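assembly run, all chains below
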Amino acid sequence: MHKINRWIAVIVIVLGVGLPMLPQIIWSFAFRWLFPSLLPTEWSMSSWEYAFSPSSRVVEGFMNSMEIAVFVCFLSILVGLPAARAIAMYDFKGKGFIEWLLMVPIIVPGIVSTLGIHQVFIRLQLTNTFIGVSLVHLIPCIPYMVLVMSSVFANYGTELEDTARTLGASPIRVFFSVTLPGILPGLMVATMFTFLISWGQYITTALIGGGTIVTLPLVLFPFITGINYSNAAAISLIFVAPAILVLILISRQLGQDSAVMGGFGRL
Amino acid sequence: MNRLKLIEKLRVPLMIFPAFAIVVVLFGGGMISGLGQSVGYFPVIGLNEFTLDYYAEVLSDPGFLESLWLTFRLAFLSTLFSSILAVLFALVLRHSFRGSRLLTFIYQIPIPIPHLVVATGIVLLVSQSGLLSRGAVNLGLTQTPRDFPVMVFDQPGVAIQLTFLWKEVPFIGIVVLAILKSIGPQYEEIARTLGANSWQRFRYILLPLIMPGILSSSIIVFAFVFANYEIPLLLGVRYPTTLPVMAYRSYQDPDLGLRPQAMAISIILAIVAILLLVAYRRLARYAVKA
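ok done. output:
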């Protein structure tokens, strides 16, 4: 019985995960792929050449997406880390309310706040700017950063920090030599989640960026249901590349460390 | 000494404040601005009198209710199927067997992949000229692309569901798997020696332990699908469409007079999302206790 279940799981997982990725890989190298051939009749690199040419704006979009995502990660850590630590390690008045408030952006549809913010940002002249787009990305990112890191801090003891402090280490030294190494695996997962949330944003960027800030999802979007499957596939694969890199970096923590994913159990 | 006390007192507020301020100013500000526009405060086009007319207009539109039902159905079915599949896979993957680590890695691959990439792949896979349709012809099951069932731009939204399933099963699955691995086999072994069969062991031992994980991860999934804009826009029919698409379309209309309606739609969307998730949480907690 166990054996049969295992084989079913193996087949379903391998086929299920692989099948939507397979035609993208083949299409990106296809020049002519007539129905109903299972493989292209003519191969070519032309869609990759197109993707890397300035006219497709893929490279430009990639760089913009990367800059915004890295900046959003930096801001999320800066404001999310202290908040997560306070929630996990201190008892204070109104803690339940604060916890609830920081999670609300996960529950309330992002499009609702974004439509409202659009008007405010027009007045503040933040539309069509790098900062404006980064700030709207920050809204869904902070809750995830706090969620994951507060569960990491909940399983984190302060004894080593106390020892370092009594030995005369400065607060900055304590943070970089003691705290940071202790929370690093969890922080990596949280940062990667944050990066991916920003990396995948479409509608927030489209609205607040107003077409001036072109990120990779905006470049890919019209291709998805367009007629040129090869170009769609190549751009899609460029869009997914950093995500695969991220998975390889954090897959150990995801599967093994229940403290990290346990953060999602606190909602 | 007093200075130290003051620092001690201010520590927690200072740690909380930046995150709190950003969420309140950006998110709260956006909500208030949207709410204001939906009740008739939109000075840009000369509106500044309180009215609930826009809500009345939206709620009396039969197209709105159709969209609301579609949005709910997509989110409900995606969440239900994702949760069931996630638990089934986690029950297999929690054991160590040859290749289990590799299989768990493959299982996690969808987690970081952006939804737009999945949508691209699903179109190339299940559309009438897609890979599956080609396979069906080669196996002699169909003759032309038209014999293959319509799954993209279709009324039930099969491609939309497949996209969300592919993304969300591993997400819920990894949360459940982390809990199952931390439980270990002891409880089940005790139950087994007491004569509990495998269904009873699952129902009375594992399920109550993994339920909080299923609950919170499925809340995230439901909220995400309920709010998603791009997937129903790309892979669904033009009419009826989901509420986020409907709100954004009215918002982008050249006629600025439609803006308050767009805001009313989006505020209703937010209220429904909150009510559904609160109800779901209550219900699930109750079900676990029973």
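The longest strand of chain A covers residues 30-32.

The mean pLDDT of chain A is 90.

not gonna interpret more than that til we talk
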